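Entry 14. Ran structure prediction on the chain below.
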Amino acid sequence: MFRYIDHGPMDQIPRYIKNKLDPEHAEYTHPALEPILNVTYGCMVYQEQVMQIVRDLAGYSLGRADLVRRAMGKKKLDVMAKEREYFINGQTDEDGNIVIPGCVRNGISEADANKIFDEMAEFAKYAFNKSHAAAYAVVSYRTAYLKAYYPVEFMAATLNSFLGNLDKVPVYIDECRKLGIEILKPSINKSYTKFAVYGNQIRFGLGSVKNVGTNAVEAIVKERKENGDYTSFTDFCERIQSETVNKKCIESLIKAGAFDEFGQTRSTLVASFEGILDTINNSAKRSLAGQVTMFDLQLEEEKLDNIKYNFVEMPEYNDKELLSMEKEMLGIYISGHPLSKLRNEIEAKTNINTMQMLEMQEENNLQKDGQMVKYAGIVTSVKKKYTKNNTIMAFVTIEDLYGSCEIIVFDSCYNKSSGLLLQDNIVLVEGRLSIREDDDIKIVANNIKELKSENGEKTEARKSLKINISDLDEERKNKLRGALKFFTGDKNNIQLIIITENEEKPAGGIYLTDAIFSELQEIVGQENIKIM
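Output, structure tokens:
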């Protein structure tokens, strides 16, 4: 359904359809193939047909025919080269006895034999045996039927099947959007553990939120079923007093958007929830001790809530921060994607994406190792490492619309592009695929540049931190070196530029917050540090 398909049996589909519509005019490379391939209209469809061809045309034994099938399926080029010779011209033992007659001895020309072998080799890369193919056909028909007539239910079930492997979920989320199926964020009153269908929409499950375990979801849903929907954030906090629904769990639910329906900003709830929970816990302790306040006796319940709970009203996070929270809590973007507006530019300027790499990995397609590719996405982490030669290289994680890929950046490329390797920067990587068995596909970068829109504008204005060290004494310089080293990590978000008397020199990136900026100001002085 979503597979990245290479050449092979797919090329035979037009021929199969044509010959099925007019079986009498089906063409065969050699008449000897007709008894074997007439049931599939002249096309190779099953592995058993490959084995039958080498037996009937070249005189292979059953065991030797199976060895050929395995060699073709596993793309063992050295074995296939020998088998080609045996298939065409046969094989004799040391005494001159014929072990394999070969096609030529059986009256088939060398040219025809070569062509038949090429067809078998191309087909066998992707072939199934007949029983396997029949089972796949039934599953394919049933899933195609469900997707056509019950697309929302089908996609919800598909998403649930990958809950333990969120790497693939973005691919199916993207497919939902193509089908016009909206994916809704988690809801404290509507979500269950897994993805659930709501009309023509699919609701994200609470069980997929980071730090929210199955026991917590069960407690939340049980209380909701027994006593009705939660009417407010404070109502939820009052009713759910369980060790499984702890502060970390509630914070994660806030950040994932599960309480958005109550009308308060996520920033307000993040700033307020701990105080509210402490108020509830203290109130419960007073009740146990038999203490009742004057307010408890005089005020209505609604007014009581306004008095006893102190909400720290905060403006909502910006779109970028909200998306980042969703990604952190859910593993994927729900409300949108930072790259959505650049989809056309990315598709025009790249020739590979994460979805295609996942398919290549599943197929164990080692033949594409070393292939030159262009890949674009948003930088999510940078891990620097010093080599034995004391040069810097980096392992950079870059995320596109479907997932993420590790980019290996050696020193020559890193020196040219370190200023771009900052968290949330959108870049275009040119490099070669590195494919190894039992390992994720990686890209070895040759060149990294900023992705620009079609009109040549930068996709996002980048800021830099400029520090002037011209007038600093050695003590402050040493303090600065230590601080910069401490604040450099995987989540660098701003480019660092060091200013001396003679030049301005890029110095990679660091992770900068208001608190870190204040610390650096104390070290170098306010006049020597600026964000530009």
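The first helix runs from residue 13 to 21. Will compare against last week's run tomorrow.
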